[in-house]
Recover the amino acids of this structure.
């Protein structure tokens, strides 16, 4: 059988980074191929080559045995390769139906056939089992729903090759389950599926073949029945990954750094009390809709609370008003789930993002001191272990895990006092996850010191926030990390 699509000796470099090195890859009909590897291993780069987004520096791609050079993504799509990229790219101002049918509104006699387009969109959504109103602006959807809209869009092309780059990173368990079923069903109908994911449990359920990438190379390729999850993890990590010792909990005698009392909102919160001491990291767990994100938003002053109070160690109090700026100035920072939309300025250099919130402390007479800016950036780079070619590269060039580290670095640089993290490791590989945990633990450790002396600087953290997206389906992993300590209460 001829492979439906194959790659021979694909290589691609970005600046000094070898993102893909001499990769061979072959895909047969009716099989699901898991692409595994840590962040930065080269998976998305391969996906971009196969989907016509970028061209390889060398090597070739064959479609049904014939060499093909994709001119652009549309060319790949029309050749039967539909791709859902890692970064969500729905157009917020367009409706669900318009997004699903983007770029190929069917028309009759030169007039757009609205009914027909809606029907096609509905069909694709139904295949996924998603109940979304066709007229809802995509910008009003939860991230998970936006992701499902993109998947529906890919399905609506009825592709012979479907490429999904971390499709379940923001889906709930049941949404992910459903997607896995669809993937298996498509494969049984002869579609070849490339499936990039970090979730081992999914791979076991969905994949026929596993290909492991490391540092741009394919380091292993197996049929799923030939390997164990452990072996895959080891292959992904190379020699580097070791079990980490459990972090010791901070002493709870530091005094309360954040005190939340009787917090109520019109929607979910029904009188939440929460005390966190300096240096303490408190995890918030709960089911979807239980109010985890809402608590963070209310503490950050993004949403109004109808009752209750938030108090900081220095006695600063906040009532129920929406007053993000004041709270940010007092050292409360929220790293939202949607870092792309709210946490980060993608088309700005990494360095700029890192110092965005502490411009006052690296400026003199109103001018940014470039020397200090560089020093701050270099220190952040070291602390976060982000591998970059240059600090002046755009944040957009970083993987998701590294983007998240940039957001955290910014909070560190801003002298944050209370750090609120909403799903900080969503879509992040295991290695970066550990680095992010270390960063958080490091912050908490420092906070234990701050708690012994009054706040000295006036730096502020201008965490970009302000989306109006309301409630949420989020996974279990959600935490509040704060420079402060004690016990948690349930929403
Ligand atoms: N557009 C780009 N510009 C610069 N470097 C890039 C770009 N895209 C990817 N890289 C780099 O190439 C490497 C592979 O990245 P990627 O393919 O995104 O990995 P993965 O999807 O496995 O996490 C990483 O080191 C990443 O930083
Ligand atoms: Mg990727």
């Amino acid at each position: 059988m001829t492979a439906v699509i194959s790659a021979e000796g694909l290589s691609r470099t970005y600046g000094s980074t070898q993102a893909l090195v001499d990769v061979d890859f072959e895909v047969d009909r009716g099989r699901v191929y898991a692409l595994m590897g840590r962040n930065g291993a080269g998976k998305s780069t391969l996906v971009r080559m196969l989907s016509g987004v970028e061209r390889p520096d060398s090597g070739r791609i064959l479609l049904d045995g014939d060499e093909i050079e994709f001119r652009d993504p549309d060319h790949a799509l029309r050749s039967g390769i539909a791709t859902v990229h890692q970064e969500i790219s729905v157009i917020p101002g367009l409706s669900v139906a318009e997004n699903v049918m983007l770029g190929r509104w069917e028309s009759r006699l030169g007039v757009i056939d609205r009914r027909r387009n809606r029907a096609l969109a509905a069909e694709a959504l139904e295949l996924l089992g998603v109940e979304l109103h066709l007229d809802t602006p995509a910008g009003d959807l939860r991230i998970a729903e936006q992701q499902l809209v993109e998947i529906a869009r890919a399905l609506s092309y009825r592709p012979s090759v479907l490429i999904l780059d971390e499709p379940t990173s923001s889906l709930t368990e049941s949404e992910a389950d459903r997607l896995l079923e669809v993937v298996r069903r498509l494969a049984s109908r002869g579609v070849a599926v490339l499936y990039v994911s970090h979730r081992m449990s999914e791979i076991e359920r969905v994949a026929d073949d596993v290909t492991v990438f490391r540092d741009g190379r394919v380091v292993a390729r197996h049929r799923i029945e030939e390997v164990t999850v452990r072996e895959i993890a080891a292959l992904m990590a190379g020699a580097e990954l070791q079990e980490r010792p459990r972090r010791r909990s901070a002493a709870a005698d530091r005094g309360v750094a954040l005190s939340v009392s009787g917090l109520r909102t019109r929607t979910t919160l029904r009188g939440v009390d929460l005390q966190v001491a300096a240096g303490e990291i408190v995890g918030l767990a709960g089911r979807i809709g239980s109010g985890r994100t809402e608590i963070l938003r209310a503490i950050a002053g993004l949403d109004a609370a109808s009752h209750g109070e938030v108090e900081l160690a220095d006695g600063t109090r906040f009532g129920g008003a929406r007053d993000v700026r004041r709270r940010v100035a007092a050292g409360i920072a929220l790293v939202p789930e949607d870092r792309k939309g709210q946490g980060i300025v993608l088309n700005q250099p990494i360095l700029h993002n890192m110092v965005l919130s502490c411009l006052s402390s690296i400026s003199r007479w109103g001018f940014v001191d470039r020397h200090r800016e560089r020093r701050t950036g270099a220190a952040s780079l070291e602390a976060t272990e982000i591998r970059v070619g240059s600090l002046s590269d755009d944040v957009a060039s970083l993987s998701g895990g590294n983007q998240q580290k940039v957001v955290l670095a910014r909070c560190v640089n801003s002298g944050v006092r209370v750090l609120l993290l909403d799903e900080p490791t969503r879509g992040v590989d295991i290695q970066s996850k550990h680095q992010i945990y270390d960063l958080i633990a490091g912050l908490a450790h420092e906070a234990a010191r701050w708690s012994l002396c009054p706040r000295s600087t006036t730096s502020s953290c201008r965490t970009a926030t302000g989306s109006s997206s309301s409630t949420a389906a989020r996974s279990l992993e959600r935490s509040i990390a704060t420079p402060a300590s004690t016990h948690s209460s349930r929403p």
